[in-house]
Design a protein that fits this description.
heterodimer; A: alpha+beta; 8-stranded antiparallel β-sheet; 4-stranded antiparallel β-sheet; 10 helices; B: mainly alpha; 64% helix
Chain lengths: 674, 207
Amino acid sequence: MSRGEHARYRQLISDRLAGQLSVLEERQLVRHLLACAECRAVHNDYHEQRRKLRSLPPQSPPRDLWARTSVGLDREMARRSWPAAGGPRRVPRAALAGTVAALGVALLVGTSQLGPTPQPQTASGSPRLLLPTPFGVAPQRMAFLGSEAGGMVLYRAEVNQVCPTSALSCLVEEDLSPQVIALPRGVTPSNLSVSPDGERLAITSSQSVVALVLGSELGGPPPDQPPDRPSSEPAATAGLTAAPEGSPPAPEPTADAASPVAPSVSPAAAGSPPAEPSPELTSPELPSSTEPPSITPPVQPTAATAQSLTAVVILDDVHAVGAPPAWASNGELLAFSAMPADASRGPDVYAWREGTETAIRLTNDGMTYFASWSGERIVASRVLLGEADGPATLSTVLIDPHTGLEQVLPIADLWLPQVSPLGDRAVVWQGTMEFSATRARPLTGALYLADWSALELAATEMPTAPPSESTEPPATPEAPAGLPEASPRAQPKVTAPPDRGNPTPDESSTDEVSLESATDEVSPEPSAGAAPPSDAPEAGPGATAPAADWPDFELVDLDPERDPVHEPVLDWQVRWASDGMLLGYWLADAAGASWGHLKVLTIAEEGGRLSPAETLLAPTLARRNFTLGTDRVAWIGPTDTGGDGELRIRTWGPGGEGGLDLPELDLREVVPAF
Amino acid sequence: MPVLAVQRQVLGATRVTTDGATARAAIEQLYAAHHAEIYSYLARMLRDHELAADLTQEAFIKAYRAYDTLADRERARAWLYQIAGRTALDELRRRKIVRFVPWSGESRGSAASAEDLALHGRLSGDMERALAQVPPRQRQALLLAELQELSGIELAEALGVSHVAARALLTRARESLRQALAVERARSAVAEGRPQSAVSGEERERP
């Protein structure tokens, strides 16, 4: 009998003690116990545990406990502002609650992932002296998105004060700047990804991906934006510029735009996407062979659109899959993976640049999932379906969004690596998966820490071409290409697959190839630092990929106590702080669930070995999506008064630990994201 | 510029709509009914009677603050246990007794602190020593199920997890305790100069 079966019966034995077995389970268990001495021993041990536990001496409370508690309650009553006496405290709450509730539903909450500024603000006292004084923290932007009949309103604020954790409560008054967002008709946001500079948003809805350029003019530059940030440097974008010739330059921040704008939006303003998706916007397929990929005139926010924050549908009729959309570190490129809404094919990786109308598909195999960014390259996970009933395998590829060229990492069966901003470490999922023609689904597995720099270094020695799907004939010039550029590299580069026996480093093709070719391409001759993929472990159902097959790469279990088989990680999100020292991960309570648990911890490195270190936020009930800065984490927690979520922030740093929550926001029906 | 004033509260604080006297009276009733078991639970969790008393007091004050969140009086017991449990875990974390709390809330693998060792030395009996080795989150589940006799939904609510997760946590707790007990028995046998086989005759290789 397998260990897994024994574990199942241990669960039943435990359930039986709790009186939670069904009749059928009871029969199964009894039958099993008669035949299995090991489980019988477990059964006896568990009963013995119960007997001994219940015979432990009683723990009696001290006699003065009530006196102490009563004093504490008296003190608490005196310091709290109850509704009858708390008029001043309830005014601002009512003001916000009324405003947001009147809008309908606050749909999204977002914060930009900014690091702290060197000098925290000084604390400012509350005029209501009964409440503890908040203390200052490095400012960080935060955004709330609320909906109303005419569109959505973006509220922006800056978190620069929190309450000490020892305080019962405190009062911080904050200015909120409302800004209307003109979302295309039918777009109901379900996810929000904020660029590192806080100037761009990517909104995922059920059937489209929408980009929204906020611009620094709306809230001033991020407080901690490094002076050498390359996003606005022309040199940094040389060869990457998506705006075709003749496109208007990006608007400069204006003084006018810095003012909050009254909620008057015309969705038909210049640059607004069509209410009904046009064919060229709706198809996730590659451009036709007669119309090579090109970028239509960019949608630049004019002064009017900047004020009303018009959003652009960059891909329609799709489901976003894989890791949530993410912006490159310079905030210029957005990457994500999506598949047609009708599931006619699997997912591919797309990239979008401000100033262009649509996202460009970078892969063409229909089984590639966006994972994260590693520097300027996109990290993606790909399923390599075997022939007929043959096993499928997983591979991790690095995609240059400018050229579409790919490199394969020399380790199999990692899934959706989340690379730290410094590119030195990553969190990866490893386990067993289930595959269909268009989807891959984790079955059992766990999250691990990996030395990404070593993996990426080895990847440079192992170029290969992406495989193509077997159901589509090759031989059209519809090659996935990098993002169009102003340079001669703007044209898609279509090259033949590299010779199997003579792969050319850094020149792997993105052309479509046949399945056989694809198989060949992922099975090159053994090379330094990489075992031959033919030795790669199977990744199909029931197959686990032992990392040990690939030398020199150690995966450190993030949660050694979690059984990857019986408590598998099936649905997760990982975020790194900008310094790469903090890691936050959220695990769904069940695959696809809105709620899960969020944990934040530091990562230590001793003797070259990564390991989880101090926990900054113990596993906490949280809605999907969160944001993590170097000194804070923000998430949506459960409300205590009927709402479905409230924004919570926990900070740490020189000023000590602090926190806030915003219970006034009615976040019902929210799938909040940051 | 439109300005909206936002009141922010520290984490864990909740809005209060009940008047203070009503909430106070209700908490007093809950205290009378449940303070002994809450104290007992915290004492087993923390292995420190004085600390358990402090945190019992703190738990009821927190309950008072959050009284409006108690939607169903029938579930007050699980609600109190949840508050007390969180208070205990926060304290454990704050004191660095648990340096790393893995996802499941367990701490196996982390080095025992000096405080742990000192506490361990004061504990008597295999069961108490073994229980002290069970990771806090699991220990919560075990104590709630076996000593406080919570089960089903009530146990899940007290742990703040789903019913399925609570079942799994409890099973892991039983297994952890089983292994810890085996270690303690072996240790006792060595200390008393008995052959281990005489003590561990019931020990079987883990499936």
